[in-house]
Amino acid sequence: MAELFSDEWMKSYMEEWNSEPDLSGALERISFNSNIGYGFLGDDQPKGILIVENGKATSAGAYNGEEMNWDLRASKDNWDKWIEKGLSMASLGMAYMGGKLKFKTGDYMAMIKDPRMAGPFIKSFAVMKNVK
Q1: What's the CA gap between 96 and 113, in Å, rounded?
Q2: Residue 2 belongs to some domain of the structure
């Protein structure tokens, strides 16, 4: 398996994102566009970025200074646990409230209150398990 959030990992994640209708299809229905960074607590910048246009991931790779709408950070151990076991709405709330999942950029509260975004957000963790 490629290193978490490396260029290779992010490209594989993009394929998994686009092949999951409950994720890309659901976000397409709300015309979701976003630049999403993924990385680790304590780092100055994210390791990887996913560019989403109308719900579909159109580009992915190592972060290279792109502007972000979302910047998600957690420890490597927590990312590994969530990738293996996934997240539910309850465990997401606990991770956020407990400081295990940080949003350096992006509005967690607005996202979680909108079921059109919250469901696909949870699904985005589930598809990470399929990344080779």
Answers
A1: 14
A2: no
User: Within a 10 A sphere around the Cβ of 64, how many other Cβ atoms?
Assistant: 8
pLDDT tens-digit series, residues 43-57: 999 999 999 999 999
pLDDT per residue over 27-43, tens digit each?
999 999 999 999 999 99
Instruction: Show the domain range for 77.
Output: 7-128
The span from the CA of 116 to the CA of 29, in Å, is: 9
Buried b (16+ CB within 10 A) or exposed e, 3-26: ebbebbbbbbbbebbbebeebbeb
Q: Which amino acid does the sequence have at 77?
A: D
| Listed residue (79, 82, 38) closest to 57, CA to CA | 38
What's the CATH number where 77 sits?
Answer: 3.30.1050.10
Evaluate whether residue 1 is within a structural domain: no
